[in-house]
Design the sequence.
């Protein structure tokens, strides 16, 4: 089969990790007999430099006409002087919104081989960690009303019931395929949006009586993640809480350089990106960890192409080379490491 993929390499380490991800893609294609039509388009800082705006029309058009989008990371201090809608990150938010990608799936799994890089005491993570954060992606404070003057600024957190209901449905469906345990995280002791969130999640939960649901305040959740992370299986939360908690969850599994994500809507179409940022400080040095974006490509096979075998092949190859002791700088724990390209060579050999 031939798949149409829009490729947005982005800024900082984006281009180098995406080059490696594309190599893995072709290796999977060769092994399983698929071909890819990859169209590279620009967004974020790279687009500002080349086209004078963070999201050229052609980028949106190519993305809309693709089966899936693979994205590296956008942003960097180089564009810090830009305000509001001109910022590189705004391209990412517009893509998510315009493509209808309201569900961000962020699995946080600890690889057995990396348990020494986990910053928590070993007894806390004994037996491993395996949770998935389901983050609402096109609502909340990221997309609410805004206002700025010299001495005042305001960002509104807004939610409609339907926005909460559809992400809750996704989370319950995921919970049904896992351990039927869901924690919904909010700030219902303070925020009206959170009270609507809680009420809506409870309503949806009636359709899934087998799923054990609990509600937790976000400040407590941030604490529970470091004192007892194994209590979590599926975490359901709104946009900004999910942004923050997924960074935290990623570090307790070993490194933010390891975690992939899928942004999904109602259909098979999806955008796949690592959860980490563009890390301009290490860009161009061949030391970035490409595993998060390679695992994001695995998620693309699973969610958009419904090809579980291909997805598992990538995940197994990554796991095997980690078991063999190959590491990038971020996961060495003081031992030897190899480069971005070299670790990808190992993954491809394993495939
Ligand atoms: C993420 C990132 C983005 C977000 C930024 C780059 C806009 O942190 O995907 O987690 O906040 O959603
Ligand atoms: Mg983030």
Sequence:
């Amino acid at each position: 089969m031939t798949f149409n993929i829009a490729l947005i390499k982005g800024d900082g380490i984006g281009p180098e990790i995406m080059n490696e991800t594309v190599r893995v893609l072709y290796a999977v294609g060769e092994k399983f007999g698929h071909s890819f039509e990859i169209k590279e388009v620009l967004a974020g800082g790279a687009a500002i430099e080349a086209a004078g705006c963070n999201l050229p029309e052609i980028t949106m058009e190519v993305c809309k006409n693709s089966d899936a989008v693979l994205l590296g990371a956008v942003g960097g201090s180089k564009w810090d002087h830009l305000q509001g809608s001109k910022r590189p990150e705004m391209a990412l938010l517009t893509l998510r919104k315009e493509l209808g990608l309201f569900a961000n799936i962020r699995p946080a799994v600890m690889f057995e081989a990396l348990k020494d890089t986990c910053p928590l005491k070993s007894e806390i993570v004994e037996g491993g960690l395996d949770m998935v954060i389901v983050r609402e992606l096109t609502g909340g404070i990221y997309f609410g009303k805004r206002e700025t003057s010299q001495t005042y600024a305001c960002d509104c957190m807004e939610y409609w019931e339907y926005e909460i209901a559809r992400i809750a449905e996704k989370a319950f469906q995921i919970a049904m395929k896992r351990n039927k345990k869901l924690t919904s995280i909010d700030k219902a002791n303070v925020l009206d949006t959170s009270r609507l969130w809680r009420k809506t999640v409870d309503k949806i939960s009636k359709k899934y009586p087998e799923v054990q649901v609990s509600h937790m305040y976000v400040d407590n959740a941030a604490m529970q993640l470091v004192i007892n992370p194994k209590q979590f299986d599926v975490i359901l939360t709104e946009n900004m809480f999910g942004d923050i908690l997924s960074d935290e969850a990623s570090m307790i599994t070993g490194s933010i350089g390891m975690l992939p994500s899928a942004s999904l809507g109602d259909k098979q179409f999806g955008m796949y990106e690592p959860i980490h940022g563009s890390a301009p400080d290490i860009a161009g040095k061949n030391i970035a960890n490409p595993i998060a974006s390679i695992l994001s490509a695995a998620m693309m096979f699973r969610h958009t192409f419904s090809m579980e075998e291909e997805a598992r092949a990538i995940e197994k190859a990554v796991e095997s080379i980690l078991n063999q002791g190959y590491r990038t700088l971020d996961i060495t724990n003081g031992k030897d490491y190899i480069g971005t390209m070299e670790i990808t060579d190992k993954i491809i050999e394993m495939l």
User: Anything to note?
Assistant: The mean pLDDT is 96. Residues 225 and 249 are 7 Å apart (CA to CA). Residues 243, 247 surround magnesium ion (ligand 2) (CB under 6 Å). The chain has two domains: 1-101+290-351, 119-252.
